[in-house]
Design brief:
Blueprint (H helix, E strand, L loop, with lengths): L1 H6 L15 E2 L16 H10 L16 E6 L14 E5 L5 E11 L13 E3 L12 E6 L11 E3 L6 E10 L1 H4 L9 E2 L2
Parallel strand pairs: 6-7
Antiparallel strand pairs: 1-2, 2-8, 3-6, 3-9, 4-5, 4-8
């Protein structure tokens, strides 16, 4: 049940942008999980199935400080992410952060990094290839697609499902206003 609650959230406001599959992974009113009129049992179950701890800094409430955790377990068509398939993610230019952004892939059963033997994370701190317009094309899959830079690829494992966290460190007002919109993870044919 915890796994279902975590990867298929039914909380009002869980979707970050209408029509996209990015969800707020940390969806608690307070670190105590106490909302004004109830205890957030499902929200607590969701977060603590995926993660271990929580702090106010992780809750993405202040402009320019702390972190925001966005989660995707499904592609742009609403299908579960499959480690045997190839996917792409376009990170639009001007990511609304004062520090950096990162994207990490996790095994959806163990909730640990995908154990592919290489780093499961890419970030704006890395030597990734950036497009002329400032956007970044990332790929995910068991094999590096021909012609794409290895620095922008995260290896996944066939037979394993995965989910991703897109983290914004020091989110700016454009995130809180939802003026900046992150693309969905899309299958690559």
């Amino acid at each position: 049940m915890a796994r279902t609650i975590a990867y298929h959230k039914r909380f009002v406001g869980a979707k970050v942008w209408p029509g996209r599959n990015w969800e707020l992974s940390l969806f608690l009113a307070e670190t105590s999980q106490e909302a004004p009129h109830h205890t957030q049992l499902d929200e607590r179950t969701s977060w603590f199935y995926e993660a271990v701890g929580v702090s106010v800094g992780m809750m993405g409430r202040a402009v320019g400080v702390g972190q925001v955790y966005l989660e995707a377990a499904k592609d742009g068509q609403g299908r579960w992410l499959d480690g045997g398939k190839a996917y792409g993610l376009t990170v639009p230019k001007d990511v609304p952060v004062t520090q950096f952004w990162s994207v990490t892939v996790y095994d959806n059963e163990t909730r640990c990094f995908v154990d592919s033997g290489v780093s499961p994370d890419r970030s704006s701190r890395d030597a990734i290839v950036t497009n002329a317009d400032g956007s970044v094309e990332l790929t995910f899959g068991p094999e590096l697609p021909a012609g794409l830079p290895e620095s922008n690829w995260i290896k996944t494992l066939p037979g394993k499902g995965w989910f991703s966290y897109f983290r914004l460190y020091g989110p700016t007002q454009a995130y809180f206003d939802r003026a900046w919109v992150l693309s969905d993870i899309q299958p690559i044919d």
